[in-house]
Amino acid sequence: VHFPDVERVEWLNKVLVQAWPYFGTIMEKTFKEVLEPKIRAKSVHLKTCTFTKIHFGEKCPRINGIKAYTKEIDRRQVTLDLQICYIGDCEIHMDISKFNLGVKGVQLYGTLRVILEPLLTDAPFVGAVTLFFMQKPHLEINWAGMSNLLDVPGINVMSDSLIQDFIAARLVLPNRITVPLKKNMNIAHLRFPVPQGVIRVHLLEAENLVQKDNFLGAIRGKSDPYALLRVGTAQHRSKTVSRDLNPIWNETFEFVVHEVPGQDLEVDLYDEDPDKDDFMGSLLIGLVDVMNDRIVDEWFPLSKTSSGHLHLKLEWLSLVNDQEKLHEDKKGLSTAILIVYLESAFNLPKNQFEYSNGECGAKKIKNNKYLKKMEREPSSFVLLTVGNKTQKSKTCNFSKDPKWGQAFTFFVHSAHSQSLHIEIKDKERDSALGTSVVCLSHLLKDPNMTLDQRFQLDHSSSDSFIKMKLVLRALNVEEPDPQRVKAGVNASKPGPVHVKEKAGNQQFSSPPQVSKVAPMSKDSDSAALESLPKKDSGEDLDTKDSSGASVPSETVSGLDGAEGKQNPEHGPPSALPSGAAAVPTLPVLQEMRVAPSVTSLGSLPSSCFELSSSNLDIHNGAEMPLGEIQLTVRYASIRQSLVVLVNGCRNLVPSSNRGVDPYVRIYLLPDRRWTSRKKTSVKKKTLNPQYDEKFEFFESLENVKKRTLDIAVKNSRPFISQERKELGKVRIDLSQEDLIKGFAQW
């Protein structure tokens, strides 16, 4: 396996292929013996339901990759992300009173998280397995029968989305399925863990958005942008700003984050139109970096569009058990989060007239049909309300002791004055079977701010209860750690860098900057190396101006300054985000050697890439070095992009007496399309060009790990010239690199 992040598990897919026919036989039996009787018992109209054909087909589900987490999580658990893809040819047909209904093919793909916890010291070594999808899985169903009524576009989408909602209510975060593997295992805390935190998103403004409105197909109008923000299944929409390509929103949204790593913030911009809203760009931000940085205030470049930047301020709020943090926020923002674990109810009345407390005596009903209907056990659901937000539970059919087993979260502005309102309703008659009000101030009397008990229901039978667990947690903004190298975009600010040495390990109070090494001849290598270690001492890296020295101690100011110089009209400086801002300088080798690849020397900045002459058309045939190129490469996980900084070249070999005008061309192989090619500016008549230009490839880390960087130094020559165009080339296999840490090398 070449990619340490996401592993291909072909052996597991082979096991699935071999076992699939046997699984199909088990499922056919289950459908006939278990599912069919259950469907028939649901309703009088379904009594004739019969499965006429059950065949699970030849194609089995495939696992495209598995990612295992062991370091970022609790030591008593193992977390796996399975990328599942099922393009099945299954056929299932059923008859319901003269109607034939069926499915002839299913497509499903999504990321399923499997958590094995707690790990035990005795068999079966794992206490329970928890399963859930990180996002709603993509689902498409080919319907059969009913004259393909369900294939009519509107109904088809509706039926698929109903099934997706059914899956989401059970299997998409925050919902999860937990299966205990050990007897008497208490799985309540595994089914309903306290969320990891809250992300507060300040949607501030955007700049240079693309124009989408056009009139008569030619004259461009201004767009009416709005933003959709998503974390998991929670979604918020901003207001629409009319006729403005530089909109200012200044809105704040809050999301509960259940799983980190795993959940991301997605932002999509649209142009509001009367018919169909036009897409204007999107943004994906990994929440691990925000959690580590605490506060990120950045301009982010939009992807999947030609121009545009979005200004967001992101705050990570941790959940703390501290009543002192519950002071009311003057700006009206949330100060706490209420988590409601709705478990079950007991002895619900069959109808709203069956009160034994005499509030409403049983009324005489003449209609016998209605009376029979009222004799049935209730099909109940719960409405939970805090402030102006109401959430609804699933429905438990025909039971006076329903078990819901669901978790709900509410944002709380004032824990001292707000209340949780509960109303149990009957689906059949839409009537209330009982109500209850819990003041949140009761939670403050408990040191853990938790209540786990039965609550008596009002307007119900005298022995009707609802069992819930309520947990209140204060939202706390922690100050960012000044010692930590920021992963956000503003990590790379220009200015002096203070480096302290501590027991051999270097600590950076602000991100280190990549040194630019001046052009030098072969015999000046040793002089260069003597001057390099000085930069690792306690001095500021860019305090002295060494004019005339062989190695200027000029540094790349903030990696975003380069972009600012490069195209000043391109809006806000989109500095470089990264899992590890700039690369900390490692101890310098005493001797500079030519390295055949990046991997052979790890990430030592002093190692060189030889611009290999083997793949170049060199007419003199001599095996000689063609010069060196300095690159800084790393993965910016907060913006989901690979960042390549081309610093400069040295000792290039001229292809003619006329001199060369070098530029650098970059491909992320295997993509050789002209549109995805990146190219620096051309430097005139020099063999030691300095570029300091930054390029980004918006790809997931899993995809980047499978790619190769193809970097060529070329000569910009006249079209009809006979001169050699390629001056040198280097390829970097990204699967061998620690891209989150990054590397800077010659």
From TrEMBL:
Keyword Cell inner membrane: no
Region annotation Disordered: where it falls in the sequence: 483-580
Highest taxon of source: Eukaryota
Main location class: membrane
SMART domains, per the entry: C2 (SM00239)
Membrane topology: Peripheral membrane protein; Multi-pass membrane protein
Compartments it resides in: Cell membrane; Endoplasmic reticulum membrane
Similarity comment text for this entry: Belongs to the extended synaptotagmin family.
Composition bias, Basic and acidic residues: 532-545
Gene Ontology MF terms in the entry: calcium ion binding; calcium-dependent phospholipid binding; phosphatidylcholine binding; phosphatidylethanolamine binding; phosphatidylinositol binding
Pfam families in the cross-refs: C2 (PF00168), SMP_LBD (PF17047)
Record-linked InterPro entries: C2_dom, C2_domain_sf, C2C_KIAA1228, Ext_Synaptotagmin_C2A, Ext_Synaptotagmin_C2B, Extended_Synaptotagmin, SMP_LBD, Synaptotagmin_SMP
Name recorded for this polypeptide: Extended synaptotagmin-3
Gene Ontology cellular-component terms listed: endoplasmic reticulum membrane; plasma membrane
GO BP: endoplasmic reticulum-plasma membrane tethering; lipid transport
Biased composition (Polar residues): 504-513, 546-556
Domain C2: 173-300, 318-459, 625-746
Keywords: Calcium, Cell membrane, Endoplasmic reticulum, Lipid transport, Lipid-binding, Membrane, Metal-binding, Repeat, Transmembrane, Transmembrane helix, Transport
